[in-house]
Amino acid sequence: MLPGRGRDNRAARLSRMLGTRIAWTPVGDGEFFCPGCGGDRNYQRLTGRRRFTLLGVPVLPRGETGPVVECAACRRHFGTDVLDHPTTTRFSAMLRDAVHTVALAVLATGGSCARTSLEAAAATVRTAGFDDCSEEQLENLVEALAADTGRVYDRPCGAGLAIELHEALDPLAPHLAPAGRESILLQGARIALADGPYTPAERDVLATVGAALTICSDDVTRLLAAARTPS
């Protein structure tokens, strides 16, 4: 027998005799987007205890491991940071709410709720997922918003409106590709342009939208100019 092969055989026998085993304990569960399956799945959050084994029998503790997230479908383990990513269902809801908030913000600063602006906004919001959204609903929401906050049309984006936009867009932005972030800004721009050129207040609110979506100011300017050009 060759010397190297003998060492390999001894190492293989030793590995069969000695090893470690992890005993997993569930500490929570829920639904997540599984990067292994590529879809929404149930999960268990697990913590583990390592044990030294002799002939497959646990004999000595070797400390704790984890926590990990185990997919109920594919059984793969992932770091707990996967729970920071929204499920497909949650992501769709976040995107729908973001588009709705941007549309209301643009309408609320546009100087008046012109029919063309309302039509553009309603079509945009319906495409985002609010299938029953109508021009009348948006008009009523804008009027109620103005009455509740004392907001005046055709004024720069105030602190309250900026907070609303950031609350809707900040959690979404990290999960969107650059094209997705730009698409939301362009949708708001087209609503603003539906009744004519941008007003200063509309530019201000769209700049706030761009900032919340982590789009740099130069790109915001470029995109707002591009939206004016007929496709």
SSE blueprint and pairings:
Layout: H1 3-17, E1 18-34, E2 39-54, E3 57-71, E4 77-78, H2 88-108, H3 115-128, H4 135-149, H5 159-169, H6 178-193, H7 200-212, H8 217-227
Antiparallel strand pairs: 1-2, 2-3, 3-4
Quick description:
The protein has 231 residues and is of the alpha+beta class. The chain is built from eight helices and four strands, in the order H-E-E-E-E-H-H-H-H-H-H-H.
Strand elements, count = 4
Q: Strand order, biggest sheet?
A: 1-2-3-4
Low-pLDDT segments: none
Shape: elongated
How many DSSP helices? Answer: 8
Protein name: TerB family tellurite resistance protein
Pfam families: TerB
Domain Co-chaperone DjlA N-terminal: 116-222
Organism: Streptomyces luteolifulvus
Word description of this protein:
This protein is α+β, with helices and mostly antiparallel strands. It folds into two domains: 15-84, no CATH class; 88-228, TerB-like (Orthogonal Bundle). The protein has helices at 3-17, 88-108, 115-128, 135-149, 159-169, 178-193, 200-212, 217-227, and strands at residues 18-34, 39-54, 57-71, 77-78. The chain has a four-stranded antiparallel β-sheet. Strand 1 and strand 2 (39-54) form a beta hairpin. Helix 2 (88-108) crosses helix 4, helix 2 runs antiparallel to helix 5 and helix 7 packs across helix 8 (217-227). The longest helix is centred in the middle third of the chain and has 21 residues, at 88-108. It is elongated and about 80 Å long. The mean pLDDT is 85. InterPro entries: DjlA_N, TerB-like. This is TerB family tellurite resistance protein.
